[in-house]
Amino acid sequence: MFAEPRQHLQRPGCARVAVVGSGISGLAAAHTLQGLTDVTLFEAGDYFGGHTHTVDITLPDAQGRQQTFGVDTGFLVLNERTYPNLLALFAQLDVPVVPSDMSFSVQAQGLGPKGGKLEWSGTSLSSVFAQRANLVNPTFLRMLADIVRFNRVTTQLALQEADLGDHSPLMQPLADFLREHRFSAEFRDWYFLPMLGCIWSCPTDQMLRFPVATMIRFCHNHGLIQLTQRPQWFTVPQGARRYVQKIVQQLPDARLNSPVRALLRDADGVRVVTDARVEHFDAVVLACHSDQALRLLGDGA
User: Fold this and answer.
1) Can you give the C-alpha Rg of the chain in angstroms?
2) Right CATH number for 16-96+237-300 from 3.20.20.70, 3.50.50.60, 3.40.1000.10, 3.40.50.1820?
3) pTM listed for this prediction
């Protein structure tokens, strides 16, 4: 049924370990195990990095000369409060970070004065009221009041560490939470959903089905629902792919376009099944989504 395993030139006395998935979890695991074991990294897609994905964009500068920039489309920023281990990994790899601007701005067609664009930014009081007509716009002022109230309510819930059982109010969908607390449609559409859209990169109807607890934990941990003492954010100049490249370059066996189809346990370890062959490993690190891991483990889960 399966092809014979390929002969692996294993170092004497070294365990052979497969890492399935090349997102940050898989890359960090492979980097940590490299040198201690013989590591093989399996990636189903056509690039390493998972959520870390840098693409090159070429644009003309002010003089009309073409300039190429590395633009991160997934993982963008990190801070000392919630990413200490990632910062330590970057330091170990000699990957630099620089302070990043984490400002927030919104432009919405047809919602502004006289049916034009609505534009505002949270950088300063002047940028909040970049359109001076909003100084006397009741719906805009209500949105601002709702932002302050939302930050206060969710911060209190985060600090209470309330019960998160199946019947907890914090397990209700975000749409129900916003409705129950009477947050305005302007708050939802001009602030809340655009902000979460920047963070979670998913459709708004899907976001509104998330449990309240998911949003509160994330936003509180990252300082997004407080007006003071927000963390300094950092980014990797020229794109986060720099750390991916450094780790992959250190791995003697890193494979793209190599989806793992099944994992079969036996008395001596694990057989890893791919489209090309079956290989034996002493251990496997599953650095993939939980549903993918269950599918790979099959009846052995």
Assistant:
1) 24
2) 3.50.50.60
3) 0.80
